[in-house]
């Protein structure tokens, strides 16, 4: 069928298999061109189908030559409904990995559940024995606690006082004003339940109990800090409380991993366009300005450039991993440079509907947004009929 983008709010409800495949191939090419990394050999990526998790899987496989198992929650095509982008991304990734001789297997389901953890561990035991790197890259608005069956929803709200600032509707190209209300204590607690470190601990404990952790294993979860302008609704808001919890969890996990000389880290990554960041108010305008500034300074990076640098220059550069005084890996270093932030702060108050396309990189934001779903990809004829039914090789084999 002919597949066109259908947007609703900040999501696109259709995805293009050929476009997603091309985007994955571009990331693979980037890693191959950048050179091999002496890194992990058996890698589990939780949240492996889009954004930072997908880039982690591609880097592990094509940069380090590692076997990878990816866990994610994606939808196959059904009738006239296309599959989700992460489904098409994974199909393309697995195909390319296998063609290049790299083992790749996937588990599709709720990573928060005991069943999916067990299924993943069984696969690790069968095909890898043990893992030496676990990437934890889930982003989701909901989590069902496997012990109680209670489902928690996260909130994107402030803590304490309301906050009003400008934002952008990136697809309409309009500046808007948003007011974010403070979350209740229950909303803060629920956000920590969903996006904090509790589930990361459950994964590591389950792997440890199964003897699936190699000596010297590393585990890394991703976080964000960003500029003061987004603090009230991000870093100091409900989601920030969850990230505080995630960061504290890294220290706790390193202690738990002492018997295998393992280490847990949180890596603070830069702001990029992903399905998750598109949902956060104010952030799309910040990213549009940031991209303008970083592109002009030749510092621009997307997920793949960030994760390649994370592996090569932080995680596997030396015997010890460089961190800041809080123990955080900072791969947001270029975003947070004083000259970059000063330039963003200068542009921010000047932005209006009429100069949006001149003084920000809204076009770049929009391009990246459509790219997430396989649209607006150079060289693809979107009038061409494509088959929306695409299989992920390893899932077909598991079912067979
Ligand atoms: P994303 O939306 O692109 O990816 C989320 C992944 O989680 C997908 O693979 C999805 O399938 C998976 N997932 C969601 N719910 C699941 C479930 N119940 N079971 C199994 N898999 C599930 O998100 P992203 O932006 O790459 O975010 C990943 C991490 O990086 C988050 O911790 C985020 O806070 C962090 N981060 C993001 C940015 C940014 O600008 N996007 C910046 C810094 C840090």
Distance between the termini: 27 Å
Number of helices: 13
- Report the sheet with the most strands, covering strand number, pairing sense and barrel closure: 7 strands, parallel
CATH superfamily, by name, is: NAD(P)-binding Rossmann-like Domain
CATH architecture call: 3-Layer(aba) Sandwich
Q: What topology emerges from the helices and strands here?
A:
Blueprint: E1 7-8, E2 11-12, H1 17-34, E3 42-46, H2 51-64, E4 67-72, H3 85-99, E5 104-108, H4 114-127, E6 131-136, E7 142-144, E8 151-153, E9 163-169, E10 174-180, H5 185-195, H6 198-209, E11 213-223, H7 238-256, E12 263-268, H8 283-296, H9 303-315, E13 329-330, H10 338-347, H11 356-359, H12 362-372, H13 393-399
Parallel strand pairs: 3-4, 3-6, 4-5, 6-11, 11-12, 12-13
Antiparallel strand pairs: 1-2, 7-8, 9-10
Bound molecules: nicotinamide-adenine-dinucleotide.
Question: Any key phrases for this structure?
Answer:
400 residues; alpha/beta; Rossmann fold; 7-stranded parallel β-sheet; two-stranded antiparallel sheet; 40% helix; binds nicotinamide-adenine-dinucleotide
Could you characterize the architecture of this molecule?
- It is a single chain.
- This protein has helices at about 15-35, 50-65, 85-100, 115-125, 185-195, 200-210, 240-255, 285-295, 305-315, 340-345, 355-360, 360-370, 395-400; strands at about 5-10, 10, 40-45, 65-70, 105-110, 130-135, 140-145, 150-155, 165-170, 175-180, 215-225, 265-270, 330.
- It has about 400 residues and is of the alpha/beta class.
- The protein has one domain (about 10-395): 3-Layer(aba) Sandwich (Rossmann fold), CATH 3.40.50.
- The strands form four sheets. It has a seven-stranded parallel beta sheet, with helices on both faces. A two-stranded antiparallel ribbon has the order 1-2.
- Helix 1 (about 15-35) packs across helix 3, helix 2 (about 50-65) packs parallel to helix 3 (about 85-100) and helix 6 packs parallel to helix 7.
- The protein starts with 6 loop residues before the first strand and ends with a helix.
- About 50% of the residues are buried.
- The model has no long low-confidence stretch (mean pLDDT about 95).
- Nicotinamide-adenine-dinucleotide binds near residues 47, 51, 53, 72 and 275.
């Amino acid at each position: 069928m002919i597949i066109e983008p259908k947007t609703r709010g900040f999501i696109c409800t259709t995805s293009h298999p050929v476009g997603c495949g091309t985007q994955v191939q571009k990331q693979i090419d980037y890693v191959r061109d950048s050179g091999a990394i002496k890194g992990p050999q058996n890698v589990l990526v939780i949240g492996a189908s889009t954004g930072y998790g997908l880039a982690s899987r591609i880097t592990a496989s094509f940069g380090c030559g590692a076997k990878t198992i990816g866990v994610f929650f994606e939808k196959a095509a059904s009738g006239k409904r296309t599959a989700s982008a992460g489904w098409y991304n994974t199909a393309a990734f697995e195909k390319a990995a296998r063609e290049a001789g790299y083992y790749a297997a996937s588990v599709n389901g709720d990573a928060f559940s005991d069943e999916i953890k067990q299924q993943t561990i069984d696969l690790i035991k069968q095909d890898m024995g043990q893992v030496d790197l676990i990437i934890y890259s889930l982003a989701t608005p909901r989590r069902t606690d496997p012990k109680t069956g209670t489902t928690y929803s996260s909130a994107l709200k402030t803590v304490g006082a309301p906050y009003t600032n400008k934002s952008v509707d990136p697809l309409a190209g309009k500046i808007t004003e948003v007011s974010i209300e403070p979350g209740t204590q229950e909303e803060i607690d629920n956000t920590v339940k969903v996006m904090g470190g509790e589930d990361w601990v459950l994964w590591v404990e389950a792997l440890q109990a199964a003897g699936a952790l190699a000596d010297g294993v590393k585990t890394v979860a991703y976080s964000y800090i960003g500029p003061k302008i987004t603090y009230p609704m991000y870093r100091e808001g409900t989601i920030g409380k969850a990230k505080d919890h995630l960061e504290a969890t890294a220290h706790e996990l390193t202690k738990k991993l002492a018997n295998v000389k393992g280490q847990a880290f949180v890596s603070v990554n830069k702001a990029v366009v992903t399905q998750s960041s598109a949902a956060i108010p104010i952030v799309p305008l910040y990213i549009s300005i940031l991209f303008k500034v970083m592109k002009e300074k030749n510092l621009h990076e997307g997920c793949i450039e960030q994760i390649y640098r994370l592996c090569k220059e932080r995680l596997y550069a030396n015997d010890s991993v460089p961190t800041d005084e809080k123990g955080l890996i900072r791969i947001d270093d270029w975003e947070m440079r004083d000259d970059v932030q000063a330039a963003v702060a200068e542009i921010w108050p000047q932005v209006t509907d009429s100069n949006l396309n001149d003084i920000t990189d809204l076009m770049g934001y929009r391009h990246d947004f459509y790219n997430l779903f396989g649209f607006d990809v150079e060289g693809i004829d979107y009038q061409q009929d494509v088959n929306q039914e695409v299989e992920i090789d390893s899932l077909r084999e598991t079912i067979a």
